[in-house]
Specification:
- The structure is a single chain.
- With about 220 residues, the protein is of the alpha+beta class.
- The protein folds into two domains: about 15-95, no CATH class; about 105-200, no CATH class.
- Helix content is about 40%, strand content about 15%.
- The strands form two sheets. It has a five-stranded mixed beta sheet, with helices on both faces. Strands 4-5 form a two-stranded antiparallel ribbon.
- A hairpin with a 4-residue loop joins strand 4 (about 65-70) and strand 5.
- Helix 2 (about 105-120) crosses helix 4 (about 135-145), helix 5 runs parallel beside helix 6 and helix 6 crosses helix 7 (about 200-205).
- The longest helix is centred in the last third of the chain and has 20 residues, at about 175-195.
- Zinc ion binds near residues 54, 56, 88 and 90.
Length: about 220
């Protein structure tokens, strides 16, 4: 499954990986959108967001349940927009790209943990630095490590697709660090092409919010 049509928002990317979640009703699709309420609202009203089920136009359809997002400095309450397809009438939840599906912590916080791990820190040290339980941090690192080849290959595809001048990727000494390098290259290219967004927001968008999900569903790939 690729990203939506090019005449639509190129990075409203969805994940179909939420089946079976205890928090999300079975079959609900999370659409990862820009973290800008006003932009998303106008995209919805103008029909520029694409239904992940049928490519129809999404329109405003109330809100999903409130949830808490733990950022680096505080807890924020989010109330994601819900949208309904004008064609097939199925609803989707629009999750801002600062989130990952089914994670309470902001993706930038998780990203910082990954970078610190690549720089040599252990999960206990990282947990103290980030003010998170060590079990939580260990869980992020383990999940990322267990999928590191898949994630690396995914962002490698994106990096070469978005930057035609990219020829080689310099090895960083470990699969973990190589993967962060290629995430950096792909997200920087995306910012240059589509407008700046934080690295980890791109990482969420480019994986449909499923960067740390244990899912067999494929990530959205470039086409
Ligand atoms: Zn539809």
């Amino acid at each position: 499954m690729g990203c939506p049509r090019k005449d639509k928002d190129p990075f409203a990317i969805f994940c179909l990986s939420t089946k079976g979640s205890s928090e999300i009703p079975e079959g609900t699709v999370m659409l990862i959108v820009l973290n800008d309420h006003a932009v998303v609202e106008s995209e919805l009203r103008e029909g520029r967001l694409v239904c992940p089920h049928c490519n129809g136009e999404l329109r405003p359809w109330g809100h999903a349940r409130r949830r808490v997002l733990r950022t680096a400095t505080n807890n924020e309450e989010l109330r994601p927009r819900r949208a309904r397809c004008s064609n097939c009438h199925m609803t989707s939840v629009l999750l801002a790209d600062i989130c990952l599906c089914r994670r309470v912590d902001e993706v930038a916080v998780i990203g910082r943990a990954l970078l610190e791990k690549a720089a040599g820190a252990g999960h206990r040290t990282i947990a103290i630095r980030l003010g998170r339980p060590k079990e939580t941090v260990r869980g992020w690192l383990r999940r990322f490590s267990s999928r590191v080849e898949l994630i690396q290959e995914h962002f490698r595809l994106w990096a070469f697709a978005l930057d035609p001048r990219l020829e080689t990727i310099t090895p960083q000494g470990s699969g973990f660090a190589d993967t962060l390098e290629v995430i950096g290259l792909a997200t920087r290219a995306a910012s240059l092409l589509f407008g700046p967004r934080p690295v980890w927001s791109w990482a969420s968008a480019m994986t449909g919010g499923a960067l740390l999900s244990n899912t067999s569903s494929p990530f959205p790939t470039p086409r």
